[in-house]
Amino acid sequence: MTAPGRAGGPLAALRRVTRERPAPVIGERCDMCATPVGPEHGHVVDLHSRALMCSCRPCYLLFTDEGAHLHYRAVPDRYRRFDGVDARAWDELEIPVGLAFLFRNSVQDRTIAFYPGPAGTTESELPLDAWRRIEPQLAELRPDVEALLIRRGECFLVPIDACYELSGRLRTLWRGFDGGREAHDAIDAFFARVKARSRP
Amino acid sequence: MPELDWQAAGDRIDALIAASASGGVVAHERAEEIARLVADVYGAGLERLLDLLHEQGALTDPVVDALAADDLVAGLLLVHGLHPYPVETRIGQAVAHLGAELVGVSPDGVARVRIPPADGCGTSAAALRPAIEQAIEAVAPEIAAIELEEPPRAVIPVSSLFARLGETSAP
After folding, report:
1. Interchain proximity A18–B40, CB inside 8 Å
2. What is the pTM of this model?
3. What's the gap between Cα A124 and its chain centre?
């Protein structure tokens, strides 16, 4: 390979980019190394921007060490079912919509609740007393990459990318004040899938 | 608008594309794509321009020669494969400056160049190759490979060994 610039004259860069015409990449790619990835692929979380990045298997495996101080963390593929939150605890959680997910932000060292809605997700601090009731379940969570998904009578541990997926879908389906029929159908379908993948 | 230092601009394009790689592979690909698309638009414009001039009968030999003689115009025409001279002419002129001669260009883009016979100080194909490659790359970027033809090494005639013998033995 020749050095850029002078070797082929000052217009070498233009000649190179017009001559090399890479085939357009169709489908999703790894956000780290740009390798094409299939529809089923892992994700890593950027701990500072909270962005979820699609990743190929090799890049994913770089960030699976839970103890390491890394900028990114791989999202594990773990689903668990917990006993549902009882009615009183549910009311104390003061969840404005029928559904919430909670996760631990290790950078800010706090637990945050998110409610999906028409504008994506709304963030909220948990009322302190209420979240003591679900402390055992919260303790199971791996910080930043797993979330507690709760609605009345149901409580699951899910990978955080599943929460992003649900939020994204709800945002496109949300109609009117309470979300409408399609949004509720999507939520039901999502919970059915989560239930099928979960173990106690 | 101040006059553009187009040679510096060409190098700067290269440097910026290379620097965009720090944003990741996708950022680098996007930077290349921007440069490619802009170049494509201007290339299409240049082609249209030449077509229009040709339709109007304005592309006379002196005009074509003047276009080819301008480094910037000729360089841009080469980027877009629009140079008016055929590839053999361009290479022939470029290697002639180095004392070499173009034998021919194969359909698959291989240029055969005959280099001058080695002189006393041992100029060989290996020494000339970089200069010839650079000269051809500058005027014929479409060339895929270059083959150098070296003339057979001249054998020193025996008679020349004795040429001075008579002088020294003479009283």
Report:
1. yes
2. 0.56
3. 17
**Token duo for residue B54:** 């040709």
Rounded to two decimals, the ipTM of the complex is 0.71
Per the DSSP assignment, residues forming a β-bridge with A105 are: A110
Please state, in angstroms and as integers, the Cα–Cα distance from residue B81 to each residue in A77, B141, B170, following that order.
Answer: 52, 9, 67
Q: What are phi and psi of A97, to 5 degrees?
A: -110, 180
And the tokens for A37? 């990835």
Cα distance between residue B124 and residue B117, in whole Å: 8
pLDDT digits (tens, 9 = 90+) for B93-130: 888 888 888 999 998 889 999 887 765 555 566 778 88
Report yes or no: B111 and B59 within 8 Å, Cβ to Cβ: no
A5, A18, A31 member nearest B79 (Cβ): A18
Name the DSSP letter for residue A175.
Answer: B
DSSP B8: H
Q: How far is CA A13 from CA A60, A126, B22, B34, B137, in A?
A: 34, 55, 18, 12, 13
pLDDT of residue B124: 65
Contact present, A190 and A147 (Cβ < 8 Å): no
With beta carbons under 8 A apart, name residues in chain B contacting A34.
24-26, 29
Torsion sign over Cα B120, B125, B126, B128: positive
Phi, psi of A121 (to 5 degrees): -115, 145
Domains and CATH numbers, chain B: 1-84 (no CATH), 86-151 (3.30.300.130)
Q: Among B7, B26, B39, select the one facing A17 at the smallest CB separation.
A: B39
- CB B14 to CB A21 under 8 A? no
